[in-house]
């Protein structure tokens, strides 16, 4: 009898290589039932049992893979957010310089006191009439005129200009605020997660699953969408300003902005029609969720069904009130159509 046979078979409850390779997770009883069904033997030798050293190496390998995947994903998100924050900071600084000059257009024009005095003196000199031996002036005093003076209205284009530029500034600052919040979340998720022990690996995996479950990546994708919206609003306000200053400069600027808009829109929607297109961006992924036929059809059906249900409830409730009034007030119309309920 050989040395391997002398060791004898292992117990049913022990994990073996053939079973764990084919059907992982089977208990001892389930393994025996499966072996009887397949007509195989459960007499595996003890050399086929995983040793503690092998289990330790396997666990270290799993822990290192989890650590690499978690660190790689968090590092990629941090670098992406850093790029967005730099762009948002520079754009907000430039936009603030424009807003400082544009908000003055919303304030009423304050007349220059020296200019007002000169205008008053000129008007009085022009209104002198000589009737010997008197010299009369028909011009009213400045105190009387001040009561009738009124500020000119704010131009409509100035209102649109400030609305667009301040909205752009708000979107830019909002993207920076969201980026800072997400960086805090990522920093908190990676704290106290050093090493490859079982406790640390389980904690790291739990936090990684939480980031995926709460769609942190989708929140990060909102940041470039906000920045692109801020740029679009700024360029629109710039065109409003230029059209009221010089039409030639405004025309050249409009052509350049139109080319940029065509390029941006084309590269954003092109992956929706060609799956092999590499121009995939966060706005493209959001559009794909709406563009997906099954999801679009589901949203459409749900919207139609909800609208019909709300409409039916509204008219049913109204007709029920009308029938109630019919018994009280004798409404012939409601009494003649009770079958509509």
UniProtKB/TrEMBL annotation:
InterPro entries registered for this protein in UniProt: DUF6535
Transmembrane segments: 84-106, 157-182, 222-243, 249-273
Region entry Disordered, spans: 1-28
Keywords: Membrane, Transmembrane, Transmembrane helix
Residue span, DUF6535 domain: 59-244
Pfam families: DUF6535
Transmembrane helix among keywords: yes
Protein name according to UniProt: DUF6535 domain-containing protein
